[in-house]
TrEMBL record:
Residues 385-507 form the Integral membrane bound transporter domain. This is Integral membrane bound transporter domain-containing protein. It comes from Streptomyces colonosanans. It is a multi-pass membrane protein. It is found in: Membrane. Its main location: membrane. Keywords: Membrane, Transmembrane, Transmembrane helix. Residues 694-728 are annotated as: Disordered. The chain crosses the membrane at residues 26-45, 75-94, 101-125, 145-166, 418-436, 466-483, 495-515. One of its GO terms (cellular component) is membrane. InterPro entries: Memb_transporter_dom (IPR049453). The keyword Transmembrane applies.
Length: 728
């Protein structure tokens, strides 16, 4: 994508308004906390302190709205405390420009690094820096600055208390995450009825796993419906796939295939019912036709071998989740006796500090996109503050404030937010000015208008940038008007400085970018390595049977999912960037993704049929697993260097396995894993062909598998060179 289409797409994204589900109760709760803080501060301390406290309460409420599995009161308290510290330190240095600029650079750089800890941490840290540039202008002495900081903490405490008293939909996000995982499994089962080799996106399962980590206090209050269903969702996915796949399941056509389709449809309906019960906290209502389909007594007469075992495993798993979703089976903790059930522990805020510091320290290297973002945003903040101070406009902090709020680690979000913020600020400032001109400019009236603007922002925060930024701009204007500024006389200043800040942010990314496109081969290589480890771990257990409980397989699977998610994130970002990666075309990337996804799917099928402890060993499986693990690591290195990977070592081991099989025969377990090994090698060959579509098979490391002639895609330019990134 060239610069003009990329900028156009980013601009349209920033101006887009989407229809989203609004949450009026949450908006009312946040606005009520803000109104309490403003009213109390006006009555006790005056307009200037009220403005500072309002900023603290406003930011604390926004923190509680972020996508986070951590308890909401913690987010409000952290937000209020960090803003108070920022404001106090900023006031101590604001009278000395060089010292304040040094603090601003350091504080903004650290805030930029906090994006490595997650979007919630990054947003809170960036907002604190932006708001600090406004709030440091309000106090007139050190004592007053300490008082303002104290009221910001109080604002965070008020919002935290309201979350405790009026939590809204308790455990709503956790319920949604688990229900989404079950609903995704239901959709997968329906797709398998039509496409027996359909792929599954594990993102809902990853979200559910993140949501399952709770603090000890949360674990004591977690609803019984949230216990155990995630483990079922993890176990049922490979069973569904193995039931449908013709390689290890039922044939393409015939009576067995019809029975498999019936079981998959019943599983989908029951999974949807379980998802609905968990999402809404209601009793489970079983679809009668689905229950009847599962209880059909002629399954054993129709299905045999691995497909019959998969069908029986599916029936057992569905019965478990139905009992848990319907509440007919309670764990020991739910009925008040015995030891608590196991759960993933989420550390508290203080215990998170060492982990966050390690994360930030790990990003301090030149190749890190997060470090480049931190360097960009800190430089732009300092330059914007100096430029705003030199321009004869007044309120110079609006330029760096805008830059800090719009800049993100990736290109698309930075440019779309810059456009959305400028247009939203223009609308918000103009509307706020008109309202001020028409009504009295008393502090009480201005405070009421600020609360109204904040309530609207809380309500429409998910609909798009332009609506959100218009409400924020109006809120800031009303608050500053409450503090005594002449709002109506500074409209053009705020608009121009907002434009300056947005342009600085966009220019900084163009001059010092962190493009994701050149990193695509590295992301693909990481996924290849992780996928190879997962497949090797599964196949190795056919040589060393330990039963269904295999922690190494689970760990490798999680690593594969993480690498896959990183690849998809990189691809999504790269598609909106105005650069191209020579040789790794979009077509090649899509084909490579399909090949690696097929590798993972075959490994998942083999995982569904892991032999029980004490079963007959398949020694050749261990040799194949070792060769696969080593070859994928070497292949990942080749991908990074721009060479097509070779699988000769894996092919030789498979040939030796073929010879052993022909000489001594094989049992059912040996046949299953041998067939899976062949499918994995085929998918790896597809990966090589995808990455080198113009290279004949003999030049691709000895690939002799017969395949149809390939045609070089029209969008593949020149040789595949990972180090070459060109802006068009």
């Amino acid at each position: 994508m060239s610069w003009v289409p990329a900028l156009k797409e980013a601009a349209l994204s920033g101006l887009r308004i989407e229809r989203k589900r609004l949450d009026p109760l949450v908006a009312v709760r946040g606005a009520a906390g803000l109104a309490l803080v403003i009213a109390a501060s006006l009555w006790l301390f005056g307009p200037a302190v009220a403005a500072s406290s309002a900023f603290g309460a406003f930011q604390a409420a926004i923190a509680t709205f972020q996508r986070s599995w951590r308890p909401r009161p913690e987010l409000a308290l952290v937000s209020g405390l960090s803003l108070a510290v920022s404001t106090f330190l900023g006031y101590l240095t604001v009278s000395r420009l060089p010292l304040f600029l040094a603090l601003l650079v350091v504080w903004t750089f650290v805030a930029g690094l906090f994006w490595a800890a997650g979007p919630t941490a990054g947003l809170i840290a960036s907002s604190n820096v932006a708001i600090m540039m406004v709030t440091v202008t309000l106090p007139t002495s050190v004592a007053q600055a300490a008082g303002h900081a104290g009221t910001m903490i109080v604002g965070g405490l008020v919002q935290a208390a309201l979350v405790v008293l009026f939590p809204g939909r308790r455990w709503g996000a956790h319920r949604d995450a688990l229900a989404d995982a079950l609903a995704a499994e239901a959709d997968y089962a329906r797709r398998l009825r039509q496409d027996p080799v359909a792929l599954f996106d594990p993102l809902p399962l990853m979200e559910a796993r993140d949501a399952a980590a709770v603090t000890p206090r949360q674990a004591r209050r977690r609803p019984a419906q949230l216990h155990g269903a995630r483990g079922f969702a993890e176990r049922v996915r490979p069973v569904l796939a193995s039931l449908a796949d013709p390689a290890v399941g039922a044939p393409h056509e015939g009576r067995a295939r019809e029975r498999v389709r019936e079981l998959l449809g019943a599983a989908a309906d029951i999974l949807d019912a379980g998802a609905h019960a968990i999402r809404h906290g209601t009793p489970l209502e079983l679809p009668p036709h689905a229950v009847a389909a599962l209880r059909t007594p002629d399954t054993e007469a129709i299905l045999t071998g691995p497909v019959y075992r998969a069908a029986e495993r599916l029936r057992t798993l569905l019965q478990d989740v139905l009992e848990q979703a319907g509440g007919t089976r309670q764990d020991e903790m739910a009925v008040g006796g015995g030891a608590p059930p196991p759960y993933r522990v989420r550390p508290g805020p203080l215990r998170m500090v060492p982990a966050i510091l390690r994360t930030l320290r790990g990003e301090l290297h030149p190749g890190s996109p997060i470090a480049r973002h931190a360097a960009r945003v800190s430089t732009v903040a300092a330059a914007g503050y100096v430029l705003g101070d030199l321009l004869p406009l007044g309120h110079g902090y609006w330029a760096p404030l805008t830059a800090v709020m719009v800049m993100r680690p990736d290109f698309s979000q930075t440019y779309s937010r810059a456009v959305g913020r400028f247009c939203g600020t223009l609308v918000g400032v103009v509307l706020a000015t008109v309202v001020v001109r028409l009504g009295p400019a008393e502090p009480v009236h201005m405070g009421a208008l600020a609360v109204l603007a904040a309530a609207l922002m809380y309500l429409v925060r998910l609909t798009g940038q332009i609506a959100t930024q218009a409400c924020i701009a109006a809120y800031v204007v009303f608050l500053l008007g409450m503090a005594g500024e002449q709002v109506a006389q500074t409209v053009h200043e705020r608009v121009l400085l907002t434009l300056v800040g947005g342009l600085l942010a966009m220019l900084a990314y163009a001059v010092y970018p962190a493009w994701e496109t050149p990193r695509l081969p590295g992301r693909l290589a990481d996924w290849l390595t992780a996928q190879g480890r997962y497949a090797a771990a599964v196949i190795r257990h056919y040589a060393e049977p330990v039963g269904k409980s295999a922690p190494d397989v689970r760990e490798a699977l999680l690593g594969s999912r993480t690498a896959r998610a990183a690849w998809h994130t990189a691809v999504d970002r790269a598609r909106g960037e105005p650069v191209r990666h020579r040789g790794l075309s979009r077509t090649a990337a899509d084909k490579a993704e399909d090949a690696l996804a097929e590798t993972g799917r075959v490994a998942m099928l083999l995982e569904a049929h892991l032999p029980e402890r004490g079963a007959a060993s398949v020694p050749a499986a261990a040799r194949f697993a070792d060769a696969l693990c080593s070859a994928t690591e070497q292949g990942a290195k080749a991908v990074r260097e721009g060479r097509p990977p070779s699988w000769d070592a894996v092919r030789e081991v498979l040939r030796a396995w073929d010879a052993e099989k022909g000489a001594g025969g094989e049992d059912a377990c040996d046949a299953l894993v041998h067939r899976g090994a062949g499918l994995i090698l085929r998918s790896l060959d597809d990966l090589t062909e995808a990455l080198a579509p113009a290279v004949p098979p003999k030049a691709m490391g000895g690939n002799t598998r017969k395949s149809a002639p390939t045609v070089r895609p029209a969008d593949a330019d020149g040789p595949w060179n990972p180090g070459d990134s060109t802006a068009r």
